[in-house]
Amino acid sequence: MADTKSSRGLAATGVGTVDCARHEMKLASGVGDLQKGKKVATSTKEMGPGSCRDILDDNFSDWNWKKVTTVGHILLCKLKEAVGSAKMHSNELAELQSAIDAVSLYACKSEVEAWEDDSSQPNPFESCIACK
């Protein structure tokens, strides 16, 4: 691609973006022109710089708008799933606790609570073999 006649005289041969992986949002400041030799889709290479930026801004704004307007539905679905999972996990915890004798369960809870209150206490989640 670097040596093709079709790329002569172009300021850029493509566009690359960096997206926010956590929020899946597209930021205008995360866009950069790619130069010859980069293998990317080049749908904006024939445009002038102003047109190119306008098209990219429109596309990113559309993407972000769709993301923002659907976030309520997505969160509702995740909340419903979490409520169902919480009930299942609560039942499984109760079943596990019923299988452990009361003295051992109290000792385990005491160790965890002591560690949560003061992290300098021994970590009850570390293997005792690894501690020695």
Automatic annotation (TrEMBL):
Protein name (database record): Uncharacterized protein
